[in-house]
Amino acid sequence: MSEKCNTCPSQAGCSVDPNECSGSEATQALLGALNDIRNVIVVMSGKGGVGKSSVTALIASALARAGKKVGVLDADITGPSQPKAFGISKEQGLMANEYGIIPLESSNGIKIISINFFLPNEDDPVIWRGPMLAGAVKQFWGETDWRDLDYMVVDMPPGTGDVPLTVLQTLPVSGIVIVSSPQDLAFMVVKKAIKMARKMDIPILGLVENMSYAICSHCNEKLELFGKSQGAKVAQDSGIDYLGGLPWDANLNTLLDQGRIEEYQSADIENIVAEILVKLP
Ligand SMILES: Nc1ncnc2c1ncn2[C@@H]1O[C@H](COP(=O)(O)OP(=O)(O)OP(=O)(O)O)[C@@H](O)[C@H]1O
């Protein structure tokens, strides 16, 4: 062992000739070295557009309100929505240290990492093949300086492709929240997500039915916009728990568009998060 190895954290298991070492092994070993992430909640949907990103942001916000240390990993690389929902952009200044990329923080201190922080313009498309997308997600997990988190909430891309597979294989997932909306098609594909989780032996925390109903702002009538709520029945038929439904709410839409999702509060979302907390420590 050479003297230059004395301060290297990888010296114990390292086989590199000290004369040829550029120090990259040591640098690599430090990435993510201080991370202590106790629970990883993955939010999945079988189909796009059902509100998975919105539910991710709402769960993270409710956990932060409950005093938990929270991170959001935006694994939806080709359709990232978390920066917009939390009103964060790379103009806040993305930095890195020897432990990795330092996530940007929301107003309530939620740490967020998203591909949008790395793109020259936030509307630039990411035109990558599966392995590149999966590689980005691995870096977001392992090369980010998350430090100490009670909960990391992961916004998955829709479906059961390369990135969901990488997340479920690479991250120590504590449980999956499945999001659907009350249309037959959405429920048909939700079953694919449930089957994927089962095949990979990952616990399913339960089903959230988004846009389950709407309240008429004039007469307070409960409107079943997408038909009768089927969430509880679909969950029961699939052998998973029903965490609850969220209404279609114009106010939620406005807050998402204005980057103020943390201001949205409702009994429905608090109940859903309470159910999740019962299942996870
Ligand atoms: N409960 C809700 N009430 C009102 N609008 C909602 C609600 N949930 C989601 N939306 C709106 O629906 C649109 C799609 O939501 P979102 O991006 O969360 O879906 P997604 O399933 O993550 O989509 P994608 O498949 O593109 O990732 C957004 O414009 C969002 O503002």
Report on the structure:
This is Iron-sulfur cluster carrier protein. Keywords: ATP-binding, Hydrolase, Iron, Iron-sulfur, Metal-binding, Nucleotide-binding. GO terms for molecular function: 4 iron, 4 sulfur cluster binding; ATP binding; ATP hydrolysis activity; ATP-dependent FeS chaperone activity; metal ion binding. The chain has helices at residues 24-30, 52-65, 82-86, 130-142, 162-170, 184-199, 231-238, 250-257, 267-279, and strands spanning 36-44, 70-74, 95-97, 100-102, 104-105, 111-113, 148-155, 175-180, 204-209, 214-215, 222-223, 242-245. With 281 residues, the chain is of the alpha/beta class. It has one domain (31-279): P-loop containing nucleotide triphosphate hydrolases (Rossmann fold). Strand 10 (214-215) and strand 11 (222-223) form a beta hairpin. Helix 4 (130-142) packs parallel to helix 5. The protein is elongated, with a radius of gyration of 20 Å. The structure holds adenosine-5'-triphosphate. The site of adenosine-5'-triphosphate has 20 residues, from helix 2 and helix 8.
